[in-house]
Amino acid sequence: MHDSMQVAGSRRSPGSPRVEAVQGCAGGGYRRVGAGAILALAAAVLSTAAFAQPDFPNRPVRIVVPQAAGASLDIAARTVGQRMQEGLGQPVVIENRPGANAIIGMETVAKAKPDAYTLVMAPPSAVAINPLVFKQLPYDTLRDFAPVSQVTGITFVVVVNPALPVTSLKELAMLARKRPGELPYGSAGVANMNHLSGELFSQMNGVKMLHVPYKGETPAVIDLLAGSNAVMFTTLPSVTQHIRSGKLRAIAVMGPQRSAVLPDVPTATEAGMAGITTSGWTGLLAPAGSPNDAIQRLYREVARVVKLPEVADTLSRLGADPVGSSPEQFSAFIKSEIAKWAKVVRSSGIELTP
Questions:
Q1: Residues 58-77, mean pLDDT to the nearest whole number
Q2: N or C: at which end does the chain have fewer Cβ atoms within 10 angstroms?
């Protein structure tokens, strides 16, 4: 075998420099490849690059919020989304799609093109509870979504209208016992965290309260301020300003420890009702099948943003703790949340039709 070979169709002009490359051959030897082969290889590489997908993102990213503007979920989406666009180099557009217990917004994203340009900032009710209470749900959490990151953990608090003569969980239970089925408590919808937290409180204390569902936390809080509702088991961010102004009274924090926002308000555990410990959260999900590199890009941006002092401070003052977990961690967390609430749903007997 000759120690070199000429590429078919190649010619070297007299006096022109010889261009060669060394290429491994079978048997451990080497052969010389001429300039024509190199040019062909370069053309193939350039051709492949021309058809490669552009870097993500190269256009605006949309975050669907399945609750009304002003709710804790909306606050988290706008606080984080505003700073994400700085790192992504593209606008991050917030779109509120409330209603049907977050099903409308969740379905919108589940059926969106799987390119990670349409995301949903989801609450636990939409992700972990809806699959437990709806027999015919137009999406499947584990099948139709790709977890991006848990953005925050959110403190839950029990608040009452100041006109209600209660200052503790025990007094609330006593009043509910005296007025079976009459004491109204509002929620952001049937079978969400607000509702199930109230159901858990009722089950623990052997009482029955009147559940009044709304299309989101904001209208429920408005009616609580007006006195149409008496109680809410709700997220701290949605009522912080009203507690500070004295328009609402916080009687217990439902998390494992006291909130820095409400240092004088005892936890449910301190009040002798450890069983009603509840924490909310927010998380970003993309349509299933979205490119992994885009998912990882979004996760890194979320993790960066929630660690920014000004963002962390804003979230903390609202009662939300920055998280920024990885897609793998968020996926495992979602599965644990589904298992956690399954028992409460079974005990309550809730079953819904969208």
A1: 91
A2: N
Residue 26 — pLDDT band, cuts 50, 70, 90?
Answer: very low
The residue to which tokens 């992700």 are assigned = 127
Domain that residue 231 falls in = 155-276
127, 190: one domain = no
Helix (H) or strand (E) run with residue 202 in it: helix 193-205
| Claim to verify: residue 112 and residue 223 sit in the same structural domain | no
Query: How far is residue 46 CA from its own chain's centroid?
Result: 39
Output the CA–CA distances (angstroms, integers) from residue 8 to 4, 12, 13, 34, 37, in the order listed: 13, 12, 15, 10, 9
How many C-beta neighbours within 10 Å does residue 38 have? 14
Which tokens hold the place of 87? 């790192």
Looking at the domain assignment, is residue 120 inside a domain?
yes
Contacts of residue 307, Cβ cutoff 8 Å, sequence gap at least 6 = 322, 324
Average pLDDT, the chain: 85
Same domain, 265 and 342: no
Say if CB 283 and CB 122 are below 8 A apart: yes
